[in-house]
Design a protein that fits this description.
By secondary structure, the protein is α+β, with helices and mostly antiparallel strands. It folds into 2 domains: 241 residues, Glutamine synthetase/guanido kinase, catalytic domain (Creatine Kinase, Chain A, domain 2, 2-Layer Sandwich); 88 residues, no CATH class. Helix content is 41%, strand content 16%. It has an 8-stranded antiparallel β-sheet. A two-stranded antiparallel ribbon has the order 6-7. Strand 3 and strand 4 form a beta hairpin. Helix 9 packs across helix 10. The longest helix has 29 residues. The N and C termini lie far apart (55 Å).
């Protein structure tokens, strides 16, 4: 385990994955609390420090069956670095702004991470590119089983794992798949399908999870219930719902080409021009245009945005720090519309994002 605050790249941003034409990423997250300390919201600094010391020592003593991890202290990072972790979904804003004794632990490839002393003592997650719910579950279970065998979790026979929020009690598992449903939105079918998913006890959230809005036709599909089912059963339910939406999204994209090609060409061209020619872009406007351009790429109308470039842009859109130097060494004003427009133009340099008139 390494203790340096070096740059971390999230695996879902840097790698390709199964079905990543629609599925941007898959996450399996487990909430756990140790049995010998009060919840973080009621803990003293001494309580929090003890949890950190025990967890990190447990990782240091691990054998080769547990991956190598880096320990990141958010308090020692710049605002840009903290928000980069949030936008890469490796940490919550609550965690990076939480103060002392709240480290983040991340593996070398950026697929497995753990927040210590966030809402619960431990929030472990595996986030992978594309559609990989079972693999994500198995990967985070490996870390969970090791730590649990060493330090002991707070559980009861009737309710399973005890968590700060009743919404997580039981298994403490949240499985989510981030889907890009631009085809369904373009065809006017997204609302009906997502409402049907909610009736099956599948939650539909925005880009940053609970309480956030959908931006750029991106939706997180996840389990609503964490108790009454096994971890495997929960994962299978989310997997089935996501598979259905992926299939329907692909069908919608095909129909968009055959039934509304002229309309699609027009909106793709307009989105490309807006991204390349604007000196100022709000976050929602940028994501809306990028979503349409990504749809155009999958429809074969433009080669502008691959799945990896889309993920990279997605992880960059909402940053709100005060200063950062771009690749040309020039200072950018982060978190404002002017910086965002410049960043998008730089990322799209060399692409041909506007379709021909055909």
């Amino acid at each position: 385990m390494q203790g340096r605050n070096s740059q971390i790249s999230a695996a879902w941003v840097q790698m390709s994955g199964p079905s990543d034409d629609v599925a941007v990423s898959t996450r399996a997250r487990l909430a756990r609390n140790v049995q010998w300390s009060v919840f973080p919201s009621h803990a003293s600094d001494a309580d929090l420090k003890r949890v950190v010391d025990v967890v990190l020592q447990t990782l240091r003593e691990s054998d080769d069956s547990i991956e190598r991890f880096r320990v990141i202290n958010p308090a020692s990072l710049s605002e840009f670095e903290r928000l980069a972790l949030v936008n890469a979904h490796l940490a919550s804003r609550r965690q990076v702004d939480g103060g002392r004794y709240r480290p983040i632990v991340v593996n070398e490839e950026g697929s497995l991470s753990m927040m210590v002393n966030e809402e619960d003592h431990l929030r472990m997650q595996c986030i992978l590119p594309g559609f990989q719910p079972l693999f994500a579950l198995e990967k985070v279970q490996g870390l969970d089983n090791y730590i649990g065998s060493k330090i002991g979790y707070a559980t009861t026979d009737n309710y399973g794992y005890l968590t700060t929020s009743l919404a997580n009690i039981g298994t403490g598992l949240r499985v989510s798949v981030m889907l890009h449903l631009a085809g369904l939105s373009f065809m006017g079918e997204a609302v009906e399908l997502l409402a049907a998913a909610a009736e099956l006890k599948i939650s539909v959230r925005g880009l940053f999870g609970e309480g956030s809005k959908a931006v750029g036709d991106l939706f997180q599909v996840s389990n609503e219930t964490t108790i009454g089912f096994t971890e495997r059963e929960i994962t299978s339910r989310v997997r089935a719902a996501a598979e259905h939406l992926i299939r329907r999204e692909r069908e919608a994209r095909q129909r968009a080409i055959t039934e509304r090609k002229t309309d699609l060409i027009r909106v793709v061209r307009r989105a490309g021009e807006r991204l390349l020619e604007s000196d100022s872009l709000s976050g929602p406007e940028a994501m809306t245009c990028l979503s349409i351009l990504r749809l155009g790429t999958e429809a074969g109308l433009t080669p502008a945005i691959s799945s990896r470039l889309f993920s990279e842009l997605l992880a960059s859109m909402q940053m709100e720090v005060t200063s950062f130097k771009g690749s040309a060494g020039k200072p950018w004003s982060m978190g404002n519309d002017i910086w965002r427009a410049g960043m998008v133009r730089e990322k799209l340099a060399g692409c041909r994002p506007v379709v021909g008139r055909g």
